[in-house]
Design goal:
Strand order of the largest sheet: 4-11-10-7-6
Helix content: 25-40%
Number of domains: 2
Structural class: alpha+beta
Strand content: 15-25%
Number of strands: 21
Shape: globular
């Protein structure tokens, strides 16, 4: 369908077709400058202090591998692999799966960042400020200097690296039977990419080049895939929520303008990593609690906006209980995907918004965990990305103390609680930066489309305003007119009123 909008005709199959030329010239905006400004506005640093960079330079003289203590296991001969984005250099974890004593053994090697980044050192203080790497789509702001996260603490292919290894025993039907954690030397045998692995496993493409001449690695990836599917079935049966969210990525043209914003769905290779990391993170939380240590838990509480989720289910002629129930919600999601597969990504987004954000919370020794509503788990901690998330580095230090049998905790409980609150706040700030920069990029892409009509989904509604997301291009903006009596998940027709690239404003009116 096409809709007349003055000088242009908008087609539902974007891009638009112009009826006549416009004399207005659109100059490229320096989105990196905007990204730096937005980072500072949200209380995040954009450049590492000189002391941190000097420390990173000195790190090159360290050789923690050759001076390994006797207690360090040498696991470099195992068929370790990594799977990440095509352009990722900050590789945090490797995986190996094998069968022993009629059980699966999952080994996850997590990069030993703590050995280079001592607590309260200049790099640690810098990492503690942002608490996370920030991915703006225009420029990335890593949590650690690249000398570390792209090199010394990255589990790069062919490099000997120190790691903390989490070994998880899993029954053949997918239930975790126990775990142990220990330091080790590891070596990545193949750096793999999500899309290439997924296409190969699904029979859409040939085996990825790093695996072509290595049958043992191909068999290893197939076993990881099998275990991940088993673990996923167990989690779904327990009430874990399965969504189909769309990730967006900004692609820039050679002239400095935004060329397009593309979407991608989670693929089979990403699900492998997700399931193996969930098993690892769950095991880490249980391990620390069993050792009498506090746990920096990742918590998603029962949703306060549950009545809105009940309304969304009613629109599908399905009934949810009056009180939050993860298992019932998981059942609804399965039925909704089957009933309207094309609309499931939009429904997923609406429910995720209604559930609310995750946060970090300190579980003191002996206390009952609050749990993770979305994963249907009681014990859960982030531990597998210490190059990218500060909570994972904190957990690594706790693990080292627990493994070494150090009775005195490395952090006091009040200090850990303060850090948990800070990490939650800074993660929220980083998310706001990433969202705003996507809006800035979207505003640039749409600045010559003012007056056009779009199909939209309501994605947020609060005292601060109502937000909608259009499908093509996939950007979010504010509904400044006609926002009365609309709820998250509603579908609307909207007209683009104005854009402001510098502020990331995209304003719509209900058509």
């Amino acid at each position: 369908m096409k809709v007349e909008t003055g000088t242009v005709v908008f087609s539902e199959n974007y891009p638009m077709v112009k009826e006549k030329k416009t004399s207005r010239a659109y100059m490229p905006h320096d989105l990196e400058i905007i990204a730096r400004r937005v980072m500072r506005e949200k209380g995040l640093i954009v450049d590492f202090p000189a002391a941190a960079l000097q420390q990173a330079t000195r790190c090159r003289d360290m050789d923690p591998v050759s001076k390994k203590p006797d207690r360090l296991a040498d696991l470099r001969d195992l068929p370790w692999t990594s799977i990440d984005n095509d352009d990722s250099m900050d590789l945090d974890q490797l995986e190996v799966v094998y069968l022993e004593d009629n059980e699966y053994r999952l080994l996850v090697a997590v990069a030993d960042v703590d050995i280079y980044v001592a607590s309260n050192s200049p790099i640690d203080e810098a990492a503690k400020t942002n608490t996370t790497s920030v991915y703006t789509g225009v420029k990335n702001f890593p949590m650690l200097p690249e000398r570390l996260s792209f090199d010394l603490t990255s589990l790069l292919a062919g490099k000997d690296r120190r790691a903390m290894v989490v070994e998880v025993r899993i029954s053949l039907n997918g239930h975790i039977a126990g775990s142990r954690i220990f330091p080790a030397l590891v070596k990545n045998k193949a750096k793999l990419c999500y899309d290439a692995v997924a296409n190969w496993l699904e029979g859409k493409a040939k085996v990825p080049e790093p695996l072509a001449q290595k049958k043992n690695l191909r068999l290893q990836l197939e076993m990881q895939d099998r275990l991940a599917q088993i673990l996923r079935r167990v989690r779904m049966a327990a009430g874990a929520l399965e969504f189909a969210t769309l990730e967006t990525r900004v692609e820039m043209a050679a002239n400095g303008r935004v060329q397009q914003i593309v979407t991608r769905r989670q693929n089979r290779a990403e699900r492998i990593i997700e399931e193996l990391m969930v098993a690892c993170n769950q095991s880490v939380a249980v391990f620390l609690a069993d050792k009498g240590f506090p746990v920096l838990s990742r918590v998603v509480r029962e949703p306060e906006r549950w009545p809105r989720i009940v309304e969304l289910a009613a629109a599908y002629h399905l009934r949810l209980p009056a009180d939050p129930d993860a298992r019932a919600l998981a059942g609804f999601l399965r039925k909704a995907r089957q009933a309207k597969p094309d609309a499931f990504a939009d429904l997923s987004l609406a429910i995720i918004k209604s559930i609310g954000r995750g946060e970090y919370h300190v579980l003191a020794a002996g206390k009952i965990p609050e749990g993770h509503f979305g994963l249907a788990l009681k014990n859960y901690a982030h531990s597998t990305a210490p190059n990218r998330r500060y909570p994972d580095l904190l957990t690594q230090r706790l693990l080292k103390a627990a493994v070494a049998g150090i009775a005195k905790n490395v952090y006091s409980l009040p200090k850990l609680q303060s850090l948990a609150l800070h990490c939650t706040q800074q993660e929220d700030a980083a998310n706001k930066v990433e969202r705003q920069m996507k809006k800035c990029a979207g505003a640039e892409l749409l600045e010559d489309k003012v007056g056009c009509l779009f199909s939209a989904l309501v994605t947020g509604s609060s005292d601060k305003g109502t937000w909608v997301r259009i499908k093509n291009p996939p950007v979010e903006g504010k509904l400044v007119r006609g926002n009365q009596r609309v709820n998250i998940g509603d579908r609307l027709r909207v007209r683009l009123l104005s854009t402001n690239v510098d502020k990331g404003f995209i304003d719509f009116a209900r058509a």
